[in-house]
Amino acid sequence: MAPKIRHILFSASILLLSSCVTLTAGEKITYVVVGGGTAGLAVAARREHDQDVSNLRLSDHSSVSENVDNIVIVIEAGADANIKNLTGPSIQALPGSPVDYNYHSMPLEFAANQVVNMTRGKVLGGSSAVNGALFTHPSKTDLDTWESDFGATGWNWNSLSAAIDSAENFTPTARLASTTSFHGSNGPIFVTQRTPTGDVWTKGVIPAVVASGGKESNDQSGGDPTGIWYSPKAMFPNSTRSYSANSYYLPNAGRSNLQVHVNSTVSRIVWAQDKSKNGQMIATGVEYLDASGQNTTVSGDRVILSAGAFGTPQVLELSGVGNPDVIESLSIFISSANFLWRSGCTFNKCRNIYQFSADPQHKQPF
With 60 as the cut, is the pLDDT of residue 160 above it? Predict the structure, then answer.
């Protein structure tokens, strides 16, 4: 099969690449997941019965090990420190911290040329280990626009909210308004409402918002994010963070067919020497530097890029896919894998927009 990019999961920057191997029902599949972060560990822990990774079910959070013939190999650049017990709602990823990549923006032209921190988790669990742990649902209008205006068939509020609910295990908090029908109750990510302490919120913030013409919302998880509300956090009832590493990976960590390599940085995608029949490049695995600094190659039937909004384009460029001006300046061989690259924006003004498709004629933005 040609390396077609089947889906893009917008919030997690996942690209799914197929290898050249044609598989029959019941045959073993080896998945190589680049990035053991928020989405990478979730995908790795989900069961995959179908032979085509394009049928990956977002609503299915059961264990990959239920199909014991499949092998999943996760390559993560960060370590696995403190994976079991992250107390408190957030970890402060300070500059210089080993759990942060410590990226910074270019001077922002329209923000007084400020340089801001671009926090990105460098740890098993990715940025779900270092963010503010808020678990909020998106706007129904925004998600429906993906389908209606951008042609992303099937990507709408109904399908995506069902997927979110399947990941959620919501526990309402006494004396706080919530609508349980807006939430999931059997997912791996535990979610609870956090009650602010003191009178600042109840006697100061909320009345000020209402007095200014705003509204107090009972529950914003039904697709209407307007108003002010006590936002839930991804936390267990004991105030320990519930995130990708301890909620998706740890329950499956003992599975013989799930391998996670930490302190291992992917350097490039490995392409087959021979192209497919229609001239497309074929992804057969990845190269990475392991914890000892040894260059290692791992092969797979499916390569899943889940290295985040920054890391996934970087891995692609290191593999010869992306802006030719950038790639050629670094003496990287330009792959002939199908890609579309749209320029015209720089990071300090808006952003670079990368578009990938199996069809060179496909011009709709994702």
Answer: yes
**How far does CA 155 lie from the centroid of its chain?**
16
Closest Cα to residue 284, out of 296, 302, 307, 267?
302
The contacts of residue 260 (CB under 8 Å, 6+ apart) are 36, 44, 74, 76, 80, 124, 249, 253
pLDDT at 277: 60
Single pTM value for the model: 0.79
Q: Regarding the domain delimited by 135-233, which CATH topology (the fold level of the hierarchy) does it fall under?
A: Arc Repressor Mutant (1.10.1220)
Domain 1-133+242-366: which CATH number of 3.40.630.30, 3.10.450.50, 3.50.50.60, 3.80.10.10: 3.50.50.60
Q: What does the pLDDT look like over 219-249, one tens digit per residue? A: 999 999 999 888 898 988 877 889 999 999 9
Tell me the pairing of strands 258-261 and 71-75. parallel
Give the whole-angstrom CA distance, residue 288 versus residue 32.
12
Q: H-helix or E-strand containing 296?
A: strand 295-299
Of 60, 71, 130, nearest to 304 by C-alpha is 71
- Residue 79: is its pLDDT beyond 70? yes
Q: What is the mean pLDDT of residues 254-280?
A: 85
